[in-house]
Amino acid sequence: MTKEFAKLAEENGFEALVLTIDYTMPGLRRYILRNEFVLPPYAKYVLLERYHESNMLPTFVNLSDLDADWSYVRWLITVTKLPIVIKGVLTAEDAIAAADAGASAILVSNHGGRQLDSTPSTIEALPEVIKAVGHRVEVYMDGGIRDGTDVYKALALGARMVFIGRPVIWGLVHDGSEGVKNILKILQEELDNAMCLTGCSVISDLDQDRVVHESNYAKL
């Protein structure tokens, strides 16, 4: 993220800047190598084409900075009016550092598990982050949201909201914008159903006591 990009976001009505911290370089995605996947020649990166036209491509392709630290977040806050969301946090240590640097919100994310396959799931990491900074900043979560009960669990464990990835893409491929609307409608209906069946009439009724973890049970 640069000062120019931040200004461009403000001018185009964006309401926040999301800074990804878990993608300094691509992960070793063996399944892509095994399947010999390459991007089809007819598929195009529309945004990159626009950056070619605007002479901003060099800035775009060099967005990953291996030398960046939390002082970069503090600097970014001084050059934009938009709130900063830090994406890719999985530990209390990083959550506290992000909050101390001035972040307005934290997105608990492991990049879909595609960066490093040994990372904890986001639903496992969420309680630790909530305990560390939930009283200071808003905490969001993504990863593995496939139905309304997944939304339920994340909200119950303290997430302010969840981000949805693949289901939205499935809906988009199936039926365009109407497909996306249908996916969101299904998730809403499933969430409403789960809340009703667990005695919750409003979101604020959800709490961590309503989520059962495997650690609650003895193992033989």
Describe the structure.
This protein is α/β, with parallel strands linked by helices and 220 residues long. 45% of the residues lie in helices and 10% in strands. The chain has helices spanning 3-11, 30-34, 46-54, 57-61, 70-78, 92-101, 122-133, 148-156, 166-197; strands spanning 17-20, 84-89, 105-108, 138-142, 161-163. A five-stranded parallel beta sheet has the order 1-2-3-4-5. Strand 4, helix 8 and strand 5 (161-163) form a beta-alpha-beta unit. Keywords: Oxidoreductase. It catalyses: 2-hydroxyoctanoate + O2 = 2-oxooctanoate + H2O2; a (2S)-2-hydroxycarboxylate + O2 = a 2-oxocarboxylate + H2O2. GO terms for molecular function: (S)-2-hydroxy-acid oxidase activity.
Radius of gyration: 19 Å
- End-to-end Cα distance, whole Å, is 50 Å
Number of DSSP helices? 9
SSE class:
alpha/beta
**Overall strand count:** 5
* Average pLDDT, all residues: 89
The description of the largest β-sheet is:
5 strands, parallel
Helical fraction equals 40-55%
Spatial shape: globular
Taking strands numbered 1, 2, ... along the chain, how are they ordered across the largest sheet?
A: 1-2-3-4-5
Order of helices and strands: HEHHHHEHEHEHEH
**Quaternary organisation:** single chain
Q: Approximately how much beta-strand content do the residues carry? A: 5-15%
Low-confidence stretches: 56-60
Short description:
This protein has helices at about 5-10, 30-35, 45-55, 55-60, 70-80, 90-100, 120-135, 150-155, 165-195, and strands spanning about 15-20, 85-90, 105-110, 140, 160-165. The chain is an alpha/beta fold and about 220 residues long. The protein has a five-stranded parallel sheet.
